[in-house]
Amino acid sequence: MDNNVYILDSFKIGKKAEILAAQRIKKAGWTIFDVRKNPRYQIKDIDYICSGFGSIWTVDVKTDRCYRTFNYFFEIISNVESDKLGWGYTSEADYILMVYPTPTGGYEMHVLDMVKTRAWIEENAWKCKVIENSTKREDGSIYHSQGIIINRQKFSLESDAVMQILSIDGQEVA
Question: Which of 98, 107, 111, 169 satisfies CB 3.0 to 4.6 Å to 163 for a cystine?
Answer without folding.
Answer: 111
